[in-house]
Amino acid sequence: MGYATRSRRATVLLAGLLVLPLAGCSAEPDGAADKKAAGRQAAEKRIPAKQQPRPAAPAPAPANVEKIGALTGCTPEVRIQAKELREGVCTTAQGSWTVTTFPEEKFKTIWLDSARMYGGTYLVGPRWAVGGKPELLDSLRSKLGGDVVRLRDAAPGSAPSS
Question: Does residue 135 or residue 57 have the better pLDDT?
Answer without folding.
Answer: 135
